[in-house]
Amino acid sequence: MSDFSCDEVLAEIERFIDGEMDVTRSVQLAQHLSECSPCLDRADFKKNLKEIVRRKCASSNTATPDRLVTRVRLAIRTERVERHITD
User: Fold this and answer.
1) Total domain count for the chain?
2) Which helix (DSSP H) or strand (DSSP E) does residue 26 occupy?
3) Whole-model pTM above 0.90?
4) Would residue 61 count as lying in a domain?
5) For residue 31, what are the contacts with CB-CB under 8 A and spacing of at least 6?
6) What is the pLDDT of residues 23-42, one digit of tens each?
7) Could you give the count of Cα atoms lying within 13 Å of 25 in the half-sphere of its Cβ?
8) In this structure, is the dihedral angle defined by the CA atoms of residues 79, 58, 49 and 30, taken in order, positive or negative?
9) Could you tell me if residue 1 is inside a domain?
10) Which residue among 9, 27, 47, 87 has the highest number of C-beta atoms inside a 10 angstrom radius?
11) pLDDT mean over 56-75
């Protein structure tokens, strides 16, 4: 089995699915997934869920990816400001 624990793999699975990892790390995670069916099942579930959300958001004018990203960034900024004010 790979040198990574399931916890380590699952902590990075989103980046792996989205193709946001360097090649070396991606190959290492792929190796773990090829040997660990529970992690592979989780990766498949997350990949399928992302695809469903992508399809559903694409059909809505108010939830396009650009607008969604903007809304998420605004929510994060608002949260940071509110925390700063209350601290």
Assistant:
1) 1
2) helix 23-35
3) no
4) yes
5) 2
6) 999 999 999 999 999 999 99
7) 13
8) negative
9) no
10) 9
11) 70
